Amino acid sequence: MATERSQNWALVLGASSGFGAAAALELARSGFGIVGVHLDRRATLPAAAAVQSAIRETGREAMFFNGNAADPARRAAVVGACRGLPGIRVLFHSLAFGTLKPFIATEAAEAVRPADMDMTLDVMAHSLVYWVQDLIAAGCLKPGAKVFAMTSAGGHRAWPAYGAVSAAKAALEAHVRQLAVELGPHGISVNALQAGVTETPAARRIPKSADLFARALENNPGGRLTTPEDVARFLAAWSLCPSNWAAGNVVRIDGGEDLV
User: Taking the domains of the chain in order of start, what are their residue ranges?
Assistant: First the structure.
């Protein structure tokens, strides 16, 4: 299918798999051109290529960048490319790269180190602030834009070896609240989306993930796990809403899982 020049663009951080890939495709179906940032090596590059191909099959443009989304030079390059677009209407932060080590371990080398903690919070939380800062400075986020960040119940619950990621999710939610207040006068809304337990490539790397999936499946009122598509459909619908008055929220997309 021939691509059309898009007037609405979404920037998806973590676009090659999981929530990011599903959101990129659903937003494309909803009329958005997609700027995608992903970090893939040779073995997983075909997945990123498949997402780009699927976006283009919807008739929308896909402009993907392979690199570390937390790297300032990579961020500058992507923001520079966004300057030539009509504007970024949606920024979706879905970066899932962090340390999965316990705080306390029998062997000191197996426990979280300061560098591990710093990296996890920088990638999964602080980078949201830096992306928003640079996009604002470049004039890419205009009134009416919406910013979304992926959080999880891990931001307020404990799980083996999940401490650094849990801290990052809690920090991310704090950043969402602060950005919502500071960007409100600019007509830009910021919200966090809390998915239920979802079997994504990142989630499978969590220690005892099979137990995590089984517990969620047993407890979820809907009788199933959350899927990336559940989140993507909600995100796309909210992105098309003309109102920007909902801001600073943590919105559960989990079938009621976090209530029980």
Answer: 8-255
Assess contact for 94 and 18: CB atoms under 8 A. yes
- CA dist 157 and 175 (Å) reads 19
Spatial strand order in the sheet of 8-13:
62-66, 32-38, 8-13, 88-93, 146-152, 189-195, 250-253
Residue 97: exposure state from Cβ atoms within 10 A (0-12, 13-18, ≥19) = middle
pLDDT tens for 128-159 read 999 999 999 999 999 999 999 999 999 999 99
Place of tokens 């830009």: 188
Could you give the 3-state DSSP secondary structure of residue 258?
A: helix
pLDDT tens column, 48-87: 999 999 999 999 999 999 999 999 999 999 999 999 999 9
User: What residue has token string 């993930």?
Assistant: 209
Q: Does domain 8-255 have CATH number 3.40.1190.10?
A: no
Q: How far apart are CA 189 and CA 62, in angstroms?
A: 24
Measure the CA angle with vertex 205, ends 202 and 209; round to 5°.
105
Token pair in block for residue 15: 């676009």
The Cα 82–Cα 77 span in angstroms is 9
pTM metric for this prediction: 0.95
